[in-house]
Give the backbone structure.
Amino acid sequence: MPVIRNNLNSGSAIALATTTWTYTLSFTPTAGRCLLMYISSDTALSITSIVQGGSSASWSSITSSIVANRNIYIYALPNIPSGSNTTITLTLSASATLFTTFIEEVSNLVASAGSLLDKTSTTSGTGSTYQTGTTATTTTANEYWVNIYAWYDNSFFGNPIGTNPTNGYTIASPNPVTNSDGGWVGAGGIAPFSVASGQIMAYKIVTATGTAGGNVDDGNLGSIQYNGLAFTLVGTPDAAVAARRRVTSTFM
């Protein structure tokens, strides 16, 4: 039976003295399925590698959307090798500031990274409705559609809460994935504000071709900066799947 389950790790700028991060999943990856990692960052990242523990298999870059302080990177490990454990090591070529990652496991996607991605669409702006734009008509009927909305707010009055997803999408939990950090200015002085960045993830399992993408409303903050990326992945997840695992949160 198709299974989708997920895990969250989010990183604080306070703890980014190293360029190597190790994530520990809350579940043991199942051989033959696909691991997906959705990264959002308030700085442009240079990702050297993402390596799966127990197998030394390297993850592949699938797509990205680079926009100022709300960048999105999508990575995948299709056809999880036998023996893979709960450890994932992400290496950057230089240290970053705030970023969050959402990791999930999906069954029945294609086994080759080069054949996984079908269509994408992206748009960015400032507002209380976050958008992705609309993809071209998808190529295959059976797909897993994902929207990532990366957001950035330097007023830090709270976190946006995704509501009212359009085009039949479901917003994943937690809502949102978030991170915050105190701002520093001058000679060691603390600025009288903080910044926050993070992402909202929405998904849809389809069995017919169509145009992917859609919007979510911010049910908390109002107008802030966002970057929306819609992408579709080829495979045969089942719309009746009920085994989506709730995420756990770990600050690095």
About this structure: The chain is about 0% helix and 50% strand. Confidence is low (pLDDT under 50) at residues 9-17, 180-193, 239-252. The CA atoms of residues 134 and 147 lie 11 Å apart.
